[in-house]
Amino acid sequence: MVRFLPIICALSLISPVFSAELGNDFNVLVEKASIAVVNISTTKIIVPNNSQSETVPGLKSLPPDLRDFLDRFFDQPRPAPHGEPRAHGLGSGFIISPDGYLLTAAHVVKDADEIIVQDTKRREWKAKIIGTDSLIDIALLKVEANDLPMAQIGNSDLLKVGQWVLAIGQPFGLDYTATAGIVSALGRSLPHDTYVPFIQTDVALNPGNSGGPLYNLDGAVVGINAQIYSPSGGYAGLSFAIPINVAMDAANQIKIHGRVIRGWLGITIQQVSQNLAASFNLERSQGALVSNVATEGPAKAAGIQIGDIILAYGEQSINSAGDLPPLVGRTRPGENIPLTVLRNGKELILVIAVAELPREITTPKSKKNKQRNKTPILPPMLGLTVTDLPRGGGSPSGVLVKRVEEGPARAAGIHPRDIIARIGGIAIRDVEHFRQLVAKLPSERTIPVLVIREGNPMFLALRIP
């Protein structure tokens, strides 16, 4: 079972050419490594929802043979022999200790009522979940067995782009299938997976490979195969693995604490685009732009402000916003970390006491805004109609966008119902204040504008005509 993400771009696939010597290396590697690989089968009992309509209207009134055909065609759950509809899934995993601990991807076993693990000797065990971590997509399982062959754990920090790697798993249920390729990129950030610096490879992965090991040529596990980019649901030349250092750290914490403890700064960040870089007088796109600071959190206490650009975390440079979350997540709560930030064109060093990531982080959503000013104001140069926000009740400061016409605001990506909270680094009090600020904006300049959209803050680059 592999999670699918929408395709970014179409790539032509080139089959790698292997030398005879490399082929022999793979033979030895597969024999050595496969003994620690396991196949994982999951079963989930589906609770019927009688309130939902049939997939095919009138299905129950059709003849049994035709009903069975349509039932299979529309992929409705098939009843188990004792009458309970069940969903089945496949995945892969690997043994990390002789006493039966093993790792896989969290989405492989998510919501499973039964997990069956099978090794290369066709021995089967029922597995129980010791713990999962959805933020990096790993699950620690346990089977009641001893003297199991365990995988050699490598060091993913030593990986280099261009290095050969090999995966073993059960794509489409074809167990113990080996596929090889190279490391295409390191530290890759993917949407909705901010805590994982993924290993990108061109190793062929398909449904059923998820949770399986990614090996280097020494036979050591360097990653857990987790995701692919695909337009069709099958391999398209891009696959991603969780670095084994990240996975093992999480597994050890699950063993000790029952969960993964992560660092937290209390900020919302975004990527610095070329236009935003120009608006902040940066020579190039770099760093992580702070779009929000939690009212009670480490960042607020350290003096971090909205509009700061974090250029370094400790001794690690932040080239893109995706570099920061994995570094923060691996920091133990209580550590003091120096941050290099850019503010108003000047670099500052701020020391932040990293806290523990709360179990649940919620972003307060803005309430529906009622007009306080019955006559919206239209700054003609921007193509915007705005109005005041209601006072009090936890409402954010700023102005509400009522209409966006052709002009700089639309080009910047400002939408109706956005709340414009800051312009040019200055917090907006009301419509009159906004109009005064707009009148003073320098022409032929790109200005950072902070908007709140459905409760989420983000910076946009506004080009002043």
Task: Specify the CATH architecture of the domain at 3-32 and 152-257.
Answer: Beta Barrel
Largest sheet: 8 strands, antiparallel
The low-confidence parts are 4-23, 51-59, 72-76, 360-375
Ends apart, CA distance between termini: 52 Å
In words, what does this structure look like?
By secondary structure, this protein is of the alpha+beta class. Among the domains are: 3-32 and 152-257, Beta Barrel (Thrombin, subunit H); 263-356, Pdz3 Domain, CATH 2.30.42; 384-464, Roll (Pdz3 Domain), CATH 2.30.42. Helices cover 16% and strands 37% of the residues. It has helices at residues 20-33, 64-73, 106-109, 244-257, 274-279, 298-302, 324-329, 408-412, 431-439, and strands at 3-5, 37-45, 78-79, 85-95, 101-104, 114-118, 124-126, 128-133, 138-142, 152-153, 164-169, 177-190, 193-201, 213-215, 220-229, 239-243, 263-264, 267-271, 288-293, 309-313, 316-317, 336-343, 346-353, 355-356, 384-388, 399-404, 419-423, 426-427, 445-453, 456-464. Strands 2, 3, 4, 5, 6, 7, 8 and 9 form an eight-stranded antiparallel sheet that branches. It has a six-stranded antiparallel barrel with strand order 11-12-13-16-15-14. A hairpin with a 4-residue loop joins strand 8 (128-133) and strand 9 (138-142). It is elongated. It starts with a strand and ends with a strand. 39% of the residues are buried. The model is unreliable at 4-23, 51-59, 72-76 and 360-375 (pLDDT under 50).
